[in-house]
Amino acid sequence: MKISVVGTGYVGLVSGVCLASKGHEVSCIDVLPEKVERINAGDPPIYEEGLDPLLKSLVGKQLRATTDFRQAVMESELSLIAVGTPFDGERIDLKYIRQVARQIGEVLRDKDAYHVVVVKSTVVPGTTEDVVLPILEEASGKKAGADFGVGMNPEFLKEGEAIKDFMEPDRIVLGGIDERTIAVLDEVYAVFTETDKIRTSPRTAEMIKYTANSLLATLISFSNEIGNLCAELEDVDVTEVMRGVHLDKRFSPILPSGQRVFPSSLTYLAAGCGFGGSCFPKDVKALISYGRDRKQPMSILDSVVRTNLDQPARMLELARKHYPSLQGRKVAVLGLAFKPGTDDIRESASIAVIRELMAEEAEIVAFDPIARHESEKELGQGAIAYAEDLADCIDGADLILLMTSWPQFEDLPEMIAKRSSAPLLVDGRRMIRPDSVPRYEGIGLTRSDPSAAASEPAVL
Question: Domain 234-442 is of which CATH architecture?
Fold first, then answer.
Protein backbone atom coordinates (compact mmCIF):
# COMPACT_ATOMS: atom_id res chain seq x y z
CA MET A 1 0.00 0.00 0.00
CA LYS A 2 1.11 3.56 -0.65
CA ILE A 3 1.15 5.53 2.61
CA SER A 4 1.92 9.17 3.40
CA VAL A 5 3.01 10.06 6.94
CA VAL A 6 2.65 13.68 8.02
CA GLY A 7 5.29 14.54 10.63
CA THR A 8 8.77 13.08 11.12
CA GLY A 9 9.11 13.13 14.90
CA TYR A 10 9.43 10.03 17.07
CA VAL A 11 6.03 8.63 16.09
CA GLY A 12 5.96 9.69 12.46
CA LEU A 13 9.46 8.67 11.43
CA VAL A 14 9.49 5.40 13.36
CA SER A 15 6.05 4.48 12.00
CA GLY A 16 7.05 5.40 8.46
CA VAL A 17 10.30 3.47 8.53
CA CYS A 18 8.73 0.39 10.10
CA LEU A 19 5.78 0.38 7.69
CA ALA A 20 8.24 0.65 4.80
CA SER A 21 10.17 -2.32 6.21
CA LYS A 22 6.92 -4.30 6.06
CA GLY A 23 6.61 -3.73 2.33
CA HIS A 24 4.57 -0.54 2.07
CA GLU A 25 5.67 2.44 -0.04
CA VAL A 26 5.99 5.33 2.39
CA SER A 27 6.37 9.07 1.87
CA CYS A 28 7.31 11.00 5.03
CA ILE A 29 6.16 14.64 4.88
CA ASP A 30 7.76 17.49 6.79
CA VAL A 31 7.76 21.28 6.36
CA LEU A 32 11.46 21.59 7.20
CA PRO A 33 13.69 21.04 4.15
CA GLU A 34 16.71 20.28 6.34
CA LYS A 35 14.91 17.39 8.04
CA VAL A 36 13.77 16.04 4.69
CA GLU A 37 17.32 16.22 3.34
CA ARG A 38 18.70 14.38 6.36
CA ILE A 39 16.13 11.60 6.08
CA ASN A 40 16.75 11.18 2.34
CA ALA A 41 20.46 10.97 3.13
CA GLY A 42 19.76 8.14 5.57
CA ASP A 43 20.53 10.32 8.58
CA PRO A 44 17.67 10.27 11.11
CA PRO A 45 17.03 13.67 12.77
CA ILE A 46 16.10 11.90 16.02
CA TYR A 47 17.88 9.27 18.08
CA GLU A 48 16.15 5.95 18.44
CA GLU A 49 17.83 2.59 18.91
CA GLY A 50 17.96 0.69 15.61
CA LEU A 51 16.50 3.52 13.54
CA ASP A 52 19.73 4.53 11.77
CA PRO A 53 20.52 1.22 10.02
CA LEU A 54 16.87 0.55 9.21
CA LEU A 55 16.42 3.96 7.60
CA LYS A 56 19.61 3.58 5.58
CA SER A 57 18.39 0.24 4.22
CA LEU A 58 15.04 1.65 3.08
CA VAL A 59 15.57 5.23 1.95
CA GLY A 60 15.38 5.62 -1.81
CA LYS A 61 13.62 2.27 -2.03
CA GLN A 62 10.49 1.78 0.06
CA LEU A 63 10.78 5.15 1.78
CA ARG A 64 11.36 8.77 0.84
CA ALA A 65 10.92 12.12 2.57
CA THR A 66 9.39 15.17 0.95
CA THR A 67 8.13 18.69 1.57
CA ASP A 68 5.61 18.28 -1.26
CA PHE A 69 2.48 17.70 0.80
CA ARG A 70 0.08 17.67 -2.13
CA GLN A 71 1.98 15.16 -4.23
CA ALA A 72 2.54 12.78 -1.32
CA VAL A 73 -1.15 12.70 -0.36
CA MET A 74 -2.32 12.57 -3.98
CA GLU A 75 -0.12 9.56 -4.72
CA SER A 76 -0.96 7.62 -1.56
CA GLU A 77 -3.97 5.57 -0.49
CA LEU A 78 -3.76 6.36 3.20
CA SER A 79 -2.40 9.29 5.21
CA LEU A 80 -1.21 9.03 8.80
CA ILE A 81 -1.33 12.23 10.85
CA ALA A 82 1.61 12.09 13.28
CA VAL A 83 2.15 15.69 14.34
CA GLY A 84 2.65 17.04 17.85
CA THR A 85 -0.18 17.72 20.30
CA PRO A 86 1.53 19.81 23.00
CA PHE A 87 -0.19 20.49 26.31
CA ASP A 88 -0.67 24.23 26.90
CA GLY A 89 -1.38 23.97 30.62
CA GLU A 90 -5.13 23.59 30.20
CA ARG A 91 -5.61 21.15 27.32
CA ILE A 92 -3.81 19.69 24.32
CA ASP A 93 -3.15 22.10 21.48
CA LEU A 94 -4.73 20.82 18.26
CA LYS A 95 -3.41 23.54 15.96
CA TYR A 96 -1.13 21.17 14.04
CA ILE A 97 -3.85 18.53 13.82
CA ARG A 98 -6.30 21.10 12.45
CA GLN A 99 -3.75 22.48 10.02
CA VAL A 100 -2.86 19.07 8.60
CA ALA A 101 -6.51 17.99 8.38
CA ARG A 102 -7.27 21.10 6.34
CA GLN A 103 -4.30 20.52 4.06
CA ILE A 104 -5.32 16.91 3.44
CA GLY A 105 -8.90 17.98 2.80
CA GLU A 106 -7.77 20.49 0.21
CA VAL A 107 -5.89 17.75 -1.63
CA LEU A 108 -8.87 15.39 -1.42
CA ARG A 109 -11.02 18.03 -3.13
CA ASP A 110 -9.05 17.31 -6.31
CA LYS A 111 -8.61 13.57 -5.78
CA ASP A 112 -11.05 11.14 -7.32
CA ALA A 113 -9.86 7.97 -5.60
CA TYR A 114 -11.04 6.88 -2.15
CA HIS A 115 -8.51 7.89 0.52
CA VAL A 116 -8.27 7.06 4.21
CA VAL A 117 -7.10 9.64 6.76
CA VAL A 118 -5.86 8.18 10.05
CA VAL A 119 -4.88 10.07 13.20
CA LYS A 120 -1.75 8.57 14.76
CA SER A 121 -1.09 11.46 17.16
CA THR A 122 -2.32 11.11 20.73
CA VAL A 123 -5.58 13.07 20.97
CA VAL A 124 -8.42 13.12 23.51
CA PRO A 125 -11.61 11.16 22.76
CA GLY A 126 -13.77 12.82 20.15
CA THR A 127 -10.96 14.62 18.32
CA THR A 128 -10.96 12.39 15.24
CA GLU A 129 -14.71 12.53 14.70
CA ASP A 130 -15.54 15.99 16.07
CA VAL A 131 -12.48 17.96 14.89
CA VAL A 132 -10.62 16.16 12.10
CA LEU A 133 -13.62 14.74 10.23
CA PRO A 134 -15.55 18.05 9.91
CA ILE A 135 -12.43 19.89 8.75
CA LEU A 136 -11.79 17.22 6.12
CA GLU A 137 -15.37 17.47 4.88
CA GLU A 138 -15.30 21.26 4.81
CA ALA A 139 -11.95 21.52 3.02
CA SER A 140 -12.68 18.75 0.52
CA GLY A 141 -16.34 19.43 -0.14
CA LYS A 142 -16.83 15.68 0.16
CA LYS A 143 -18.55 13.31 2.59
CA ALA A 144 -16.72 11.11 5.12
CA GLY A 145 -17.68 7.49 4.72
CA ALA A 146 -18.81 7.90 1.13
CA ASP A 147 -15.83 9.66 -0.44
CA PHE A 148 -13.06 9.08 2.09
CA GLY A 149 -12.43 7.16 5.30
CA VAL A 150 -11.43 8.49 8.73
CA GLY A 151 -9.75 6.50 11.44
CA MET A 152 -7.66 6.55 14.60
CA ASN A 153 -4.69 4.22 15.09
CA PRO A 154 -2.88 5.03 18.38
CA GLU A 155 0.79 4.22 18.84
CA PHE A 156 2.24 2.33 21.79
CA LEU A 157 5.92 3.07 21.28
CA LYS A 158 8.34 3.42 24.17
CA GLU A 159 11.18 5.80 23.39
CA GLY A 160 14.40 3.84 23.23
CA GLU A 161 12.48 0.71 22.23
CA ALA A 162 10.19 2.15 19.56
CA ILE A 163 11.45 0.06 16.64
CA LYS A 164 11.04 -3.17 18.60
CA ASP A 165 7.62 -2.09 19.87
CA PHE A 166 6.41 -1.40 16.33
CA MET A 167 7.85 -4.58 14.86
CA GLU A 168 6.68 -6.78 17.75
CA PRO A 169 3.46 -5.12 18.95
CA ASP A 170 1.47 -6.47 21.87
CA ARG A 171 -1.75 -5.13 20.34
CA ILE A 172 -2.91 -3.05 17.40
CA VAL A 173 -5.90 -0.76 17.83
CA LEU A 174 -7.83 0.05 14.67
CA GLY A 175 -10.45 2.76 15.13
CA GLY A 176 -12.63 3.64 12.18
CA ILE A 177 -15.86 5.48 11.38
CA ASP A 178 -17.06 2.53 9.27
CA GLU A 179 -16.16 -0.98 8.16
CA ARG A 180 -14.51 0.26 4.98
CA THR A 181 -12.02 2.37 6.94
CA ILE A 182 -11.24 -0.50 9.28
CA ALA A 183 -10.79 -2.84 6.31
CA VAL A 184 -8.10 -0.53 4.91
CA LEU A 185 -6.38 -0.37 8.31
CA ASP A 186 -6.56 -4.17 8.44
CA GLU A 187 -4.70 -4.27 5.14
CA VAL A 188 -1.97 -1.97 6.50
CA TYR A 189 -1.33 -4.30 9.42
CA ALA A 190 -2.13 -7.61 7.69
CA VAL A 191 1.48 -8.75 8.07
CA PHE A 192 1.07 -8.86 11.87
CA THR A 193 -0.81 -12.15 11.77
CA GLU A 194 -0.12 -13.19 15.38
CA THR A 195 -0.94 -9.84 17.01
CA ASP A 196 -4.22 -9.18 18.82
CA LYS A 197 -6.17 -6.49 16.98
CA ILE A 198 -8.96 -4.40 18.42
CA ARG A 199 -11.37 -3.05 15.82
CA THR A 200 -13.39 -0.27 17.35
CA SER A 201 -14.61 3.33 17.10
CA PRO A 202 -12.19 6.28 16.91
CA ARG A 203 -13.36 7.48 20.34
CA THR A 204 -12.60 4.16 21.97
CA ALA A 205 -9.22 3.99 20.22
CA GLU A 206 -8.37 7.45 21.55
CA MET A 207 -9.44 6.48 25.07
CA ILE A 208 -7.42 3.25 25.02
CA LYS A 209 -4.23 5.24 24.43
CA TYR A 210 -4.85 7.69 27.26
CA THR A 211 -5.93 4.98 29.66
CA ALA A 212 -2.85 2.87 28.95
CA ASN A 213 -0.42 5.74 29.56
CA SER A 214 -2.28 7.00 32.62
CA LEU A 215 -2.24 3.55 34.20
CA LEU A 216 1.53 3.21 33.78
CA ALA A 217 2.10 6.71 35.16
CA THR A 218 -0.13 5.83 38.12
CA LEU A 219 1.93 2.72 38.86
CA ILE A 220 5.09 4.83 38.95
CA SER A 221 3.68 7.52 41.23
CA PHE A 222 2.14 4.86 43.49
CA SER A 223 5.55 3.19 43.77
CA ASN A 224 7.20 6.52 44.52
CA GLU A 225 4.65 7.33 47.21
CA ILE A 226 5.32 3.96 48.85
CA GLY A 227 9.05 4.61 48.51
CA ASN A 228 8.74 7.99 50.20
CA LEU A 229 6.91 6.36 53.11
CA CYS A 230 9.54 3.61 53.35
CA ALA A 231 12.20 6.31 53.61
CA GLU A 232 10.54 7.55 56.81
CA LEU A 233 10.52 4.09 58.42
CA GLU A 234 13.34 2.33 60.23
CA ASP A 235 15.03 -0.54 58.40
CA VAL A 236 12.63 -0.66 55.44
CA ASP A 237 13.88 -0.61 51.86
CA VAL A 238 11.34 -0.01 49.09
CA THR A 239 13.22 -2.39 46.76
CA GLU A 240 12.57 -5.27 49.18
CA VAL A 241 8.98 -4.16 49.64
CA MET A 242 8.38 -4.08 45.90
CA ARG A 243 10.09 -7.40 45.38
CA GLY A 244 7.61 -8.88 47.84
CA VAL A 245 4.80 -7.33 45.80
CA HIS A 246 6.28 -8.49 42.49
CA LEU A 247 6.29 -12.11 43.69
CA ASP A 248 2.50 -12.18 43.82
CA LYS A 249 1.71 -14.65 41.04
CA ARG A 250 -0.91 -12.26 39.68
CA PHE A 251 2.00 -9.97 38.79
CA SER A 252 4.64 -12.62 38.05
CA PRO A 253 2.84 -15.81 36.95
CA ILE A 254 4.31 -19.24 37.64
CA LEU A 255 4.30 -21.50 34.59
CA PRO A 256 3.33 -25.20 34.83
CA SER A 257 7.06 -25.93 34.61
CA GLY A 258 7.56 -24.02 37.85
CA GLN A 259 9.41 -21.16 36.16
CA ARG A 260 8.32 -17.71 37.25
CA VAL A 261 7.76 -15.02 34.59
CA PHE A 262 8.63 -11.43 35.46
CA PRO A 263 6.74 -9.18 32.99
CA SER A 264 8.30 -5.89 31.94
CA SER A 265 5.32 -4.10 33.49
CA LEU A 266 6.97 -4.65 36.89
CA THR A 267 9.52 -1.99 35.99
CA TYR A 268 6.71 0.52 36.56
CA LEU A 269 6.28 -0.81 40.09
CA ALA A 270 9.64 0.49 41.27
CA ALA A 271 10.46 3.71 43.11
CA GLY A 272 12.66 6.36 41.54
CA CYS A 273 13.05 10.08 40.99
CA GLY A 274 10.00 10.46 38.76
CA PHE A 275 8.74 9.91 35.22
CA GLY A 276 9.18 12.26 32.29
CA GLY A 277 9.20 12.27 28.52
CA SER A 278 6.81 13.49 25.88
CA CYS A 279 3.94 11.15 26.78
CA PHE A 280 3.17 10.39 30.42
CA PRO A 281 3.19 13.93 31.89
CA LYS A 282 1.32 15.44 28.95
CA ASP A 283 -1.20 12.64 28.58
CA VAL A 284 -2.11 12.43 32.27
CA LYS A 285 -2.61 16.20 32.46
CA ALA A 286 -4.67 16.15 29.27
CA LEU A 287 -6.95 13.43 30.61
CA ILE A 288 -7.41 15.35 33.86
CA SER A 289 -8.40 18.42 31.85
CA TYR A 290 -10.68 16.36 29.63
CA GLY A 291 -12.46 14.96 32.67
CA ARG A 292 -12.75 18.40 34.27
CA ASP A 293 -14.41 19.77 31.12
CA ARG A 294 -17.00 17.02 31.46
CA LYS A 295 -17.59 17.62 35.18
CA GLN A 296 -15.82 14.37 36.03
CA PRO A 297 -13.06 14.89 38.63
CA MET A 298 -9.94 12.79 38.07
CA SER A 299 -8.71 12.82 41.66
CA ILE A 300 -6.38 9.82 41.36
CA LEU A 301 -4.65 11.26 38.31
CA ASP A 302 -4.39 14.65 40.02
CA SER A 303 -2.40 12.91 42.76
CA VAL A 304 -0.26 11.09 40.19
CA VAL A 305 0.84 14.43 38.74
CA ARG A 306 1.47 16.05 42.13
CA THR A 307 3.56 13.13 43.35
CA ASN A 308 5.63 13.16 40.19
CA LEU A 309 6.25 16.90 40.32
CA ASP A 310 7.59 16.59 43.87
CA GLN A 311 9.74 13.51 43.28
CA PRO A 312 12.92 15.06 41.78
CA ALA A 313 13.27 17.23 44.90
CA ARG A 314 13.80 14.04 46.93
CA MET A 315 17.23 13.74 45.36
CA LEU A 316 18.40 17.03 46.84
CA GLU A 317 16.74 16.30 50.17
CA LEU A 318 18.89 13.18 50.43
CA ALA A 319 21.98 15.16 49.42
CA ARG A 320 21.32 17.81 52.07
CA LYS A 321 21.46 15.19 54.82
CA HIS A 322 25.21 15.27 54.15
CA TYR A 323 25.67 18.71 52.61
CA PRO A 324 23.28 21.29 54.10
CA SER A 325 24.59 23.78 51.53
CA LEU A 326 25.42 22.79 47.97
CA GLN A 327 26.95 26.14 47.08
CA GLY A 328 30.39 25.57 45.58
CA ARG A 329 30.08 21.79 45.82
CA LYS A 330 31.04 19.83 42.72
CA VAL A 331 27.97 17.83 41.74
CA ALA A 332 28.08 15.13 39.07
CA VAL A 333 24.70 14.59 37.40
CA LEU A 334 24.54 11.20 35.70
CA GLY A 335 21.92 11.10 32.99
CA LEU A 336 20.01 13.91 31.31
CA ALA A 337 17.45 12.00 29.23
CA PHE A 338 14.24 11.04 31.03
CA LYS A 339 15.09 7.35 30.44
CA PRO A 340 17.92 5.34 28.88
CA GLY A 341 17.94 4.65 25.15
CA THR A 342 16.76 8.11 24.08
CA ASP A 343 18.01 11.68 23.85
CA ASP A 344 14.62 13.07 24.94
CA ILE A 345 14.94 15.38 27.94
CA ARG A 346 11.34 16.60 27.97
CA GLU A 347 10.00 16.63 31.55
CA SER A 348 13.22 14.93 32.66
CA ALA A 349 13.80 14.83 36.42
CA SER A 350 17.43 15.70 35.70
CA ILE A 351 16.56 19.08 34.24
CA ALA A 352 14.44 19.98 37.27
CA VAL A 353 17.28 18.99 39.61
CA ILE A 354 19.91 20.86 37.57
CA ARG A 355 17.85 24.06 37.66
CA GLU A 356 17.70 23.82 41.46
CA LEU A 357 21.43 23.16 41.65
CA MET A 358 22.07 26.20 39.46
CA ALA A 359 19.95 28.31 41.81
CA GLU A 360 22.07 27.07 44.72
CA GLU A 361 25.28 27.91 42.81
CA ALA A 362 26.62 24.39 42.82
CA GLU A 363 29.43 23.47 40.44
CA ILE A 364 27.61 21.15 38.04
CA VAL A 365 29.10 18.66 35.60
CA ALA A 366 26.78 16.31 33.70
CA PHE A 367 27.18 13.22 31.58
CA ASP A 368 24.72 11.47 29.29
CA PRO A 369 25.77 9.17 26.42
CA ILE A 370 23.53 10.89 23.85
CA ALA A 371 21.41 13.71 25.35
CA ARG A 372 24.03 16.44 25.73
CA HIS A 373 22.94 18.35 22.63
CA GLU A 374 19.31 18.44 23.72
CA SER A 375 20.34 19.58 27.20
CA GLU A 376 22.42 22.43 25.79
CA LYS A 377 19.40 23.59 23.78
CA GLU A 378 17.24 23.54 26.92
CA LEU A 379 19.68 24.95 29.49
CA GLY A 380 21.94 27.01 27.25
CA GLN A 381 25.56 26.41 26.38
CA GLY A 382 27.91 27.24 29.21
CA ALA A 383 25.24 26.97 31.89
CA ILE A 384 26.79 23.75 33.17
CA ALA A 385 29.84 21.67 32.28
CA TYR A 386 29.52 18.47 30.28
CA ALA A 387 31.86 15.52 30.65
CA GLU A 388 32.94 13.32 27.75
CA ASP A 389 32.65 10.13 29.76
CA LEU A 390 31.58 8.78 33.13
CA ALA A 391 35.06 8.82 34.69
CA ASP A 392 35.58 12.45 33.73
CA CYS A 393 32.18 13.38 35.17
CA ILE A 394 32.70 11.94 38.64
CA ASP A 395 36.33 13.00 38.92
CA GLY A 396 36.65 15.20 42.01
CA ALA A 397 32.91 15.29 42.66
CA ASP A 398 31.64 15.74 46.21
CA LEU A 399 28.21 14.47 45.22
CA ILE A 400 26.98 12.11 42.50
CA LEU A 401 23.32 12.18 41.51
CA LEU A 402 22.32 9.10 39.50
CA MET A 403 19.27 10.28 37.53
CA THR A 404 18.94 7.97 34.51
CA SER A 405 19.46 4.21 34.50
CA TRP A 406 22.00 3.99 31.69
CA PRO A 407 23.68 0.54 31.90
CA GLN A 408 27.20 1.98 32.04
CA PHE A 409 26.40 3.55 35.40
CA GLU A 410 26.53 0.06 36.92
CA ASP A 411 30.32 0.50 36.92
CA LEU A 412 30.14 3.23 39.57
CA PRO A 413 31.16 1.12 42.59
CA GLU A 414 34.38 0.02 40.92
CA MET A 415 35.15 3.55 39.78
CA ILE A 416 34.38 5.10 43.16
CA ALA A 417 36.60 2.51 44.87
CA LYS A 418 39.59 4.00 43.04
CA ARG A 419 38.97 7.43 44.56
CA SER A 420 41.08 8.50 47.52
CA SER A 421 38.03 10.14 49.10
CA ALA A 422 34.57 8.74 48.47
CA PRO A 423 31.84 11.01 47.10
CA LEU A 424 28.26 10.71 48.23
CA LEU A 425 26.18 8.74 45.74
CA VAL A 426 22.45 9.54 45.67
CA ASP A 427 20.78 6.80 43.64
CA GLY A 428 17.59 8.02 42.00
CA ARG A 429 17.00 4.77 40.13
CA ARG A 430 18.14 2.23 42.75
CA MET A 431 20.65 0.72 40.34
CA ILE A 432 23.53 0.38 42.78
CA ARG A 433 23.84 -1.91 45.80
CA PRO A 434 23.82 0.37 48.85
CA ASP A 435 26.67 -1.57 50.45
CA SER A 436 28.84 -1.45 47.32
CA VAL A 437 29.96 2.16 47.88
CA PRO A 438 31.18 3.89 51.07
CA ARG A 439 28.60 6.69 51.07
CA TYR A 440 25.15 5.97 49.72
CA GLU A 441 21.64 7.38 49.78
CA GLY A 442 18.78 6.10 47.67
CA ILE A 443 15.12 6.78 46.97
CA GLY A 444 12.93 4.76 49.31
CA LEU A 445 15.65 3.91 51.81
CA THR A 446 16.48 5.35 55.23
CA ARG A 447 20.09 5.15 56.37
CA SER A 448 20.40 6.95 59.67
CA ASP A 449 23.96 5.65 59.85
CA PRO A 450 25.48 6.39 56.40
CA SER A 451 28.15 3.75 56.98
CA ALA A 452 25.62 1.00 57.67
CA ALA A 453 25.03 -1.63 55.00
CA ALA A 454 21.58 -1.98 53.53
CA SER A 455 19.71 -4.53 51.53
CA GLU A 456 20.26 -5.37 47.90
CA PRO A 457 17.99 -3.81 45.27
CA ALA A 458 15.39 -6.05 43.69
CA VAL A 459 16.50 -7.63 40.43
CA LEU A 460 13.73 -8.45 37.99
Answer: 3-Layer(aba) Sandwich (3.40)
